[in-house]
Amino acid sequence: MNNKNKIIEDVWRDLLLHDKPEFKINAQQFSKEKLANPYVLKTSVLRKISATHFRKLKDYSKNEIFNLCDLLLKSGRPGEKSIAYEWASRCRNDFAKSDFARFERWLKKYVNGWGSCDNICGSIIGVVIYKYPELISKTVKWRKSKNRWLRRASAVSLIYSLQKGAQLKIAFEIADTLLLDEDDMVQKGYGWMLKVAADSYPADVFKYVMKHRKIMPRTALRYAIEKYPKKKREEAMSKN
């Protein structure tokens, strides 16, 4: 067994050791859809396992780590997928524009739930498109994809930039495209994006919400106005 395979085996063995009720949460409470395997390891447990094994990679290059992430993702097991995204995120200071293609492939091939979607968008794709904003043009096609997670990703991947006070115009363009999307996961995604944008641009986002509030799905609207004062929330939710 080569060293890379041994590292993957060690990760899997550690995950199995923690495959106990006290280390798990019921993810079903966060989803309307019935999950095949609702009991997943707690984030704190996964992070501890991830950190333990990442120490073994101190002499690995970024691409060697990404290749290990590929192996973890191919397993299809949620715990290994989470660790793959965690390891990739630890390389964020070395992200290059050319890495986007790999990250997009991971998104399209391995994301099948809101947790993994938000994970890869928040700590990986969001970081690289903030660093290289010209890459945002490559995410435009996600907005009209038949894949719900790509549509959600088009919004959620911009959150990192918005937290830095950037890309408000693009956020509104995304919201325009997703405005009437019937999928609640997409509605929550772009609603969340607007909520984050409101931290830096409260007046602009509230103006946008008021302009579209009569047609915006209530799920998206509630997310978007969550941090506003009660009076403004009532104004936005009013049917008048």
Blueprint (SSEs and pairs):
Elements: H1 3-17, E1 24-26, E2 39-41, H2 43-54, H3 62-74, H4 78-89, H5 100-110, H6 114-131, H7 148-156, H8 159-163, H9 168-178, H10 184-200, H11 202-212, H12 218-224, H13 230-237
Antiparallel strand pairs: 1-2
Helix pairs in contact: 1-2, 2-4, 3-4, 4-6, 5-6, 6-7, 7-10, 9-10, 10-11, 10-12
Descriptive report:
- By secondary structure, the protein is an all-alpha fold.
- It has 2 domains: 1-94; 117-240, Leucine-rich Repeat Variant.
- The protein has helices at 3-17, 43-54, 62-74, 78-89, 100-110, 114-131, 148-156, 159-163, 168-178, 184-200, 202-212, 218-224, 230-237, and strands spanning 24-26, 39-41.
- Strands 1-2 form a two-stranded antiparallel sheet.
- Helix 1 (3-17) packs antiparallel against helix 2.
- The termini are far apart.
- The relative contact order is 0.07.
- The model has no long low-confidence stretch (mean pLDDT 91).
Key phrases:
2 domains, Leucine-rich Repeat Variant, 2 strands, mainly alpha, two-stranded antiparallel ribbon, 240 residues
Beta-strand proportion: under 5%
Structural class: mainly alpha
Let me know the largest β-sheet: 2 strands, antiparallel
CATH topology description of the largest domain: Leucine-rich Repeat Variant
Structural domain tally: 2
Q: What's the architecture of the largest domain, going by CATH?
A: Alpha Horseshoe
Please work out how many helical segments DSSP would assign. Answer: 13
Helix content: 55-70%
What overall form do the CA principal axes indicate? Answer: globular
List the secondary-structure elements in sequence, H or E. Answer: HEEHHHHHHHHHHHH
Q: Strands across the major sheet, in which order? A: 1-2
The radius of gyration is 19 Å
Instruction: Tell me the total number of β-strands.
Output: 2
Q: Which runs of at least 5 residues are low in confidence (pLDDT < 50)? A: none
